[in-house]
Design goal:
alpha/beta
């Protein structure tokens, strides 16, 4: 086939089934199935891309020899969410360091992930402060790893109340319980989506707010640090969906040109340990893997699943669901600082990044300018969650909080970084969505010193 045949087939698929359809009739499905088979034939490298995606699950970081054991041997360690994918791997690594006591605290026991014979597994929900505080007080940990979270961006838009009360208010509860017990160090599992200084997406906004809570706790003198993860292959939401959809006949992709970074559960757990090793009291240091490799092509991943399973399913480009960003903000990366730095750092963060000691990761201090407004808006968010589970009201309260955090972020950014971000974004003004236009205006105001 001609080199450009794949792009022609993709265009035909988009013409055959416009975006946004909740149901596809049999005629359209038949046409999409035929075009999907043609696209498979025109994309022989898709199988290699699928194999590369799976192989990422075997990657690992190199930590300083003996450092983790020297740090944690004989210590009491508690993990929230220690029964999940990354949590179970972390528990294995922690057990190997021979702590005096190793305890997992989870809302429930996630099926399918191994448990450590020498560890204790207890139940408590991070949304329940008395229960959580009791569990932490009973251990009096020297180190607390906080992994418990709602992590599915699509589910976050459908279950707004659970996401906010878990990711934001639950993290505040962990901090409160840790402070009450005098826990010396809390290590937080964050997300690369939190690099956006403002976003209307519930999941990303909730994790951004959690990072702010931890930074504020560190500023009070506590020991807090974090690791940012991207897509974890071992528990890949999209891979699982693609496999399920292949059996159901339709693979719904947001678009044909989506690329995403990925890492392994082992890398993720090791990154948490690296973050803990580099933690500095009074400063909230965040780590992310420097080299995540070439991003994965979602379309090739879908084609690889179809080839591997032999399913005669159709690919449909459905458009972006709520919770997923359609057009990235052009000013998030700065060519002057992005080269050689993790893509999970924004331009406002990369300017302060350094290489983490002994690990292939970048570390930077996440700072927000002192401002009483976010504290007030956090209380308003809590009151809203207590009064209602109505998604719109909670989204509005979360949005007000995260917008105030944008201001607190921009006030700490160097003027030249703000100016370059504004200059890179302004030419794309006609393509920006409302949220990005709002953020551009704020950056321009701060760059000019008018805010």
């Amino acid at each position: 086939m001609p080199v450009d045949s794949a792009s022609h087939i993709i265009a035909a698929m988009s013409d055959a089934a416009p975006r946004g359809l909740s149901r596809l009739d049999e005629t359209t499905l038949g046409r999409l199935r035929a075009l999907t088979r043609s696209l498979q034939a025109a994309s022989p490298a898709a199988g290699d891309e699928y194999a590369r995606f799976l192989a990422i699950g075997d990657r690992e970081l190199t930590l300083p020899p003996g450092a983790v054991s020297s740090w944690l041997a004989g210590q009491k360690v508690l993990v929230t969410g220690g029964t999940g994918c990354v949590g179970s791997v972390l528990m294995r690594l922690l057990a190997a360091a021979r702590p005096a006591r190793l305890v997992s605290v989870s809302r429930g026991i996630t099926a399918g992930w191994p448990r450590q014979p020498a560890a204790e597994y207890t139940r408590a929900d991070v949304r329940d402060l008395p229960g959580l505080a009791g569990a932490i007080a009973s251990v009096q940990p020297d180190v607390l790893f906080h992994l418990a979270a709602q992590r599915d961006p699509g589910l976050a838009e459908r279950e707004v109340h659970r996401t906010v009360t878990t990711n934001v208010l639950g993290t505040r509860n962990v901090i409160a319980a840790a402070e009450r017990c005098g826990v010396p160090l809390v290590v937080y599992a964050s997300t690369g989506k939190a690099l956006r200084p403002y976003t209307p997406d519930t999941y990303a906004a909730s994790k951004r707010a959690a990072e702010w809570l931890l930074a504020a706790a560190a500023a009070r003198g506590g020991g807090y640090c974090a690791a940012r993860f991207t897509h974890v292959v071992d528990n890949s939401i999209i891979h699982r969906k693609l496999q399920e959809w292949a059996g159901g006949g339709v693979l719904r992709l947001h678009a044909a040109d989506i690329m995403f970074y990925a890492q392994s559960a082992l890398e993720s757990a090791q990154l948490l340990l690296s973050a803990g090793l580099a933690a500095a009291p009074g400063s909230f240091l965040v780590q992310a893997i420097t080299d995540l490799g070439w991003p994965v092509c979602l379309l090739d991943l879908a084609l690889g699943v179809l080839t591997r399973t032999g399913a005669a399913a159709a690919i449909y480009f459905s458009g972006y669901d709520p919770g997923y960003e359609d057009v990235p903000f052009p000013g998030l990366y700065d060519p002057r600082t992005a080269s050689g730095v993790s893509p999970l750092l924004s331009a406002f963060e990369a300017v302060r990044a350094q290489q983490a000691p002994g690990a292939a990761a970048d570390v930077f201090p996440l700072a927000f300018a002192p401002d009483p407004e976010p504290d007030k808006l956090l209380l308003a968010l809590e009151e809203t969650c207590e009064l209602t589970q109505e998604p719109g009201a909670i989204r509005a309260a979360l949005d007000a909080l995260t917008w105030s955090l944008l201001t607190a972020t921009l006030r700490t950014a160097p003027a030249d970084v703000l100016a370059r971000a504004a200059a890179r974004t302004a030419p794309h003004r006609d393509r920006l969505n409302r949220a990005s236009l709002r953020m551009l205006a704020a950056i321009e105001d701060h760059a000019l010193g008018t805010s």
